[in-house]
C-alpha cells in the first residue's frame, strides 16, 4: 500500500508542477486565463501574486518528490515524513480553496484528490 501512496504522491507533485507552470510562467497566456477565469487585465494586474503562488505549488511538489525518492533509496522514515508534509499541505490548500470559493470547488477537488489518496493510502499502510 505504501507503493500506491507514493504513486499518488508523485501524481500530486506532477499536478502541482503543472499548476506552477500555469501560475508562474504562463499566467497571462490565453490558456492560463481560461483555466483560472481571468481577463487579460486581471491577469496582468495579478501577475506578481500568481508568480509567487506558483512557486508555493512548486515547493510542495519538490517536497513530495524528494520524499518519494528518499523512500525509494531506503530512507523510509525521512521520506515518508517529507511525503506526508508535502501532500498534507497540498490537501490543506485544496480544503481552503474549496471552503472559500464555491466557484472553485471543482478545481479544489482536482487539486486535493491525489494528495488525499496518498494520505489515505499511507494511513492504510500504517495499519497493515
TrEMBL record:
InterPro entries: DUF1304
Segments passing through the bilayer: 6-27, 55-74, 80-100
Keywords: Membrane, Transmembrane, Transmembrane helix
Source organism, top-level taxon: Bacteria
Name assigned to this protein: DUF1304 domain-containing protein
Amino acid at each position: 500500500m505504501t507503493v500506491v501512496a507514493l504513486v499518488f504522491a508523485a501524481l500530486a507533485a506532477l499536478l502541482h508542477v503543472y499548476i506552477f507552470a500555469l501560475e508562474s510562467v504562463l499566467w497571462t497566456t490565453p490558456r492560463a486565463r481560461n483555466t483560472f477565469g481571468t481577463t487579460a487585465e486581471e491577469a496582468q494586474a495579478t501577475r506578481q501574486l500568481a508568480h509567487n503562488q506558483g512557486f508555493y505549488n512548486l515547493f510542495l511538489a519538490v517536497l513530495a518528490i524528494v520524499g518519494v525518492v528518499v523512500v525509494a533509496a531506503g530512507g523510509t522514515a525521512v521520506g515518508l515524513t517529507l511525503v506526508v508534509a508535502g501532500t498534507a499541505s497540498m490537501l490543506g490548500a485544496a480544503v481552503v480553496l474549496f471552503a472559500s470559493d464555491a466557484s472553485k470547488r471543482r478545481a479544489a477537488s482536482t487539486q486535493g484528490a491525489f494528495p488525499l489518496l496518498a494520505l489515505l493510502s499511507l494511513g492504510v499502510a500504517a495499519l497493515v
